[in-house]
Amino acid sequence: MTLVTHMKFFSSFNPNLNYLAMITKRDLAVAALTLGIASTAMIAHSKKDVMSSTIFEWNDVEAKPNQVGAVRTFFRSPTATLDELECHVTTLNPGETSHPPHQHSEEEVLIIKEGTVEALVNGQMKRVGPGSVIFQASNQLHSIRNVGEVPATYHVFSWHSPGMKIKK
């Protein structure tokens, strides 16, 4: 039995289905092709390129000056397991704060490279130096300030677990 014969058969039970007998193989082929193209486009558009293993050379990443020092953004990209993984390096001039105390859904790890900073962690200011690691949990108030006499530089790693990143 051909497709057209099937359509005629079903429409014989219900006169409201007579329009099925008018659908041609060409109509079905065009519909299937359109659906395939639309599905492919939707999948391609919705899935960003994920970052694969790579190396970022320090001197290849521009330090962009700002009001409190400078920042080098190494990457901010989806990975195979995260909606976004970000790494930047901030240099704070003596006495400067990167921003007022704030909170956000993503977690952060800061690794102090040089200088002395004071970080707001669990409601308390803690002073730490080179080699120290600071973990800022999700939605907890935090900030960081250079309390030394020389610029303080630290690496920041933050990530958005699947479903946590706010769509723009």
List keywords for this structure.
168 residues; 22% helix; alpha+beta; 3 helices
Descriptive account of the structure:
The radius of gyration is 28 Å and the shape is elongated. The protein has helices at residues 3-13, 18-21, 25-46, and strands spanning 64-66, 69-77, 84-92, 107-114, 117-121, 124-128, 133-136, 143-146, 152-160. By secondary structure, it is α+β, with helices and mostly antiparallel strands. It contains 3 helices and 9 strands; from the N terminus they run αααβββββββββ. The strands form 2 sheets. The protein has a 6-stranded antiparallel beta sheet with strand order 1-2-3-9-4-7, with no helix packed on it. Mean pLDDT is 84; it is low at 41-45.
Q: How large is the share of residues in beta strands?
A: 25-35%
What is the share of helical residues? Answer: 10-25%
Compressed to H and E, one letter per element, the order equals HHHEEEEEEEEE
What is the mean predicted local confidence, pLDDT? 84
Q: How many DSSP E strands?
A: 9
Q: Give the N-terminus to C-terminus distance in angstroms.
A: 51 Å
Number of helices: 3
- Major sheet: order of its strands? 1-2-3-9-4-7
